[in-house]
Amino acid sequence: MSTMINKRIAIILLLLFTTYSQESNAQSQLDFYIQEGIKNNQGLHQQNIQLERSLLALKEAKSLFLPNISLLGTYTKANGGRTIDLPIGDLMNPVYATLNQLTNTNNFPHIDNQSILLNPDNFYDAKFRTSLPLINAEIWYNQKIKKEQITQQQAAVNVYKRELVKNIKSAYYQYYQSGKAVAIYNNALLLVKENVRVNESLLKNGLRNSTALTRSQTEQQKIEAAITEASNNQMNAKAYFNFLLNRALTTDIIIDTTDFSKVANILNTSTNTREELVQLNKGIETYKLVEKMQRSYLVPKLNTFLDLGSQGFNFNYNSKTQYYIWGLNLQWDLFAAGKNRYKSLQAKADVSLLQAQYSQTEQALQFQTEQSINNYNTALSNYNSAKSQLNLAGKYYNDQLKVYKEGQLLYIELLDALNQLTNAALQLSLAQANVLNAAADIERNNATYPIN
């Protein structure tokens, strides 16, 4: 029986010590899950849509430099309104009368005075207008701004990717640790069942009273309840992990520990590669361009245009109705009551604000990096300590079990040794997860995971 108990303890030790013994250069299952998450995660998909939108905005900005062709048309039907009176009859009729007398004919008719309607009646004007900017500083700066915004949005996508990688790793380790907890409680249950069997045998032989048996049975129910809770935690961890990968919440997860033995890269403490700083830096560059764009009102705008069309009455179309007009448009804002200057000062203030945010964020990221390194060293120290405690707890339980079978120990003391063994195993499992999470945190703060 002692041999069987030792095997149970060895199983617990094996569950927790084998994790750091494997080395592999191949891509682990966790890396495949990370790539799947980057591909399918809905939050990241939204970020990519924003990036695509920024790319389209840049194309729109570039199109402002190209010619713009429009079809314009008007038709008017009018009656009444202002008129122009032309006394043609009063001017020409005396002349025509004199000519008729001289020629003894009626070749020159009587003419009535004319009243011409100013509003054109039954008149159309249709044309193709081609316009092209020749000098326009605003659209030039606008294109530069859109380029900076693309880089800024790309940095935002990478920030989300890195946070997603960290969350996937943490969820993976949580699921792994919750599975270990279930296994530890199951092995503890086997030990308790063995104690129940021993106490039943001792009770039959008159070597123990029923108190020890009752106590061991109570402990068995307690561990069974703990197994139920641990199993529920494992299911929750599985659901969260699958949620990050945007797949069915009950999908099975393959546990691969090939990269658990990798030591975190704590040599790089620089924050220069952090995408958060890239975002702020591009934001600063954007507002600098906005400031310059607001000052560009000092540069005149010059456009050219060409109209090709036809206009006439009663929808007549012939060589006489056809026309073209070419010209230049000049706009130079000389006075706007300080409006443009105030806009420029606002953009300058935005630059100063982002520069202050950059400095604050840089310090905060440096603090996070130092803190993650300290947390990793602490977690690693706690893990090594937990390994020693589990070894001692296993030896202690084995010794107490021998003394108990010899009738020299109360069962409550043996139960205390069992609880110490179980708690030590759980603490080691938790310490291992803390080491892995701390390593993932360092990787996140150093921005070293290859996300591209």
What are the SSEs and their pairings?
Blueprint: H1 2-17, H2 29-40, H3 42-63, E1 68-76, E2 83-86, H4 88-103, E3 114-117, E4 123-135, H5 137-204, H6 210-244, H7 275-295, E5 301-313, E6 322-331, H8 339-405, H9 411-446
Antiparallel strand pairs: 1-4, 2-3, 4-5, 5-6
Helix pairs in contact: 1-5, 1-8, 2-5, 3-5, 5-6, 5-7, 5-9, 7-8, 8-9
Brief summary:
The chain is an alpha+beta fold and 452 residues long. The chain is 65% helix and 12% strand.
Description:
The chain is α+β, with helices and mostly antiparallel strands. It has 2 domains: 2-73 and 133-305 and 337-446, Up-down Bundle (Outer membrane efflux proteins (OEP)), CATH 1.20.1600; 79-119, no CATH class. 65% of the residues lie in helices and 12% in strands. It has helices at residues 2-17, 29-40, 42-63, 88-103, 137-204, 210-244, 275-295, 339-405, 411-446; strands at 68-76, 83-86, 114-117, 123-135, 301-313, 322-331. It has a 4-stranded antiparallel sheet, with no helix packed on it. The chain has a two-stranded antiparallel ribbon with strand order 2-3. The longest helix is centred in the middle third of the chain and has 68 residues, at 137-204. The two termini are 57 Å apart. Residues 16-26 have low confidence and may be disordered.
